[in-house]
Amino acid sequence: MSNIKPLAEHACFGGVQRYYEHASKETGTNMRFSVFLPPKALRGEPCAVLFYLAGLTCTEETFATKAGAQRVAADLGLVLVGPDTSPRGIEIPGDRDSWDFGLAAGFYVDATDEPWSANYRMYSYIVRELFTEIMENFPVDRRRVGIFGHSMGGHGALVIALRNPDQFKSVSAFAPIANPVACPWGIRAFTRYLGTNQNSWQDYDATELIKRKGRAVFPGGILVDQGLDDKFLEEQLFPEALRAACDAAGQPLTLRRHPGYDHGYYFISSYIEDHLRHHASALGA
Asked: Does 151 participate in catalysis according to the annotation?
């Protein structure tokens, strides 16, 4: 692990929850990530691995401490990886002006406009750099890799999976920003990260990607859970746009709507087991 510095380790359901830091070439900063290793991994047996992408304001610790995923992951033999949500350790004018852009709000894109383009390369960081670090340094099976996430991270997971189906074999999301080219969060972020050419925005929009592909990229299905008391549902998330695109393309989608649930981790922890089992089934874990 030449480029990976261990930061902390905690025993957890017979496995270990660890945190690491490494120097990232993609972002030009030190990046942190979490890894849960189930008992199977500690015995040196190759495991299926899930990348979880967190939402706005979150860090590499949020999922590990709030989602309650480790118990089921330990039973299923799943390694869980949780990256941070943006570069840190730099200061760019405007990166701290609001909670939904800049710091902790990288939107999992490769920025093309200055001053963001030098560091805000979260798409390539996940797909190329962190993926390679995990494959080379942990007991995982590169043929059994899935990805999921929440909100901004749900957007990132869907986009990354749809653009890289040979690399990520399963995908799911909690309350994803499903059609960011049409919502205030997405328009604000994409205008500043990617510029005003809206054609380039579609490369980072799950709904538009499914329309473009026009076929089932994941024949085994995509799982999406959405709380109906989510205060961001009507203005920002647009799950019905995703459903319409999937229906038109023949992409199987299980879109579950849950009365009484909001946008937070009480919602995620209530349905995390379903998502882990969805991936375990798809990956043969």
From this structure: yes
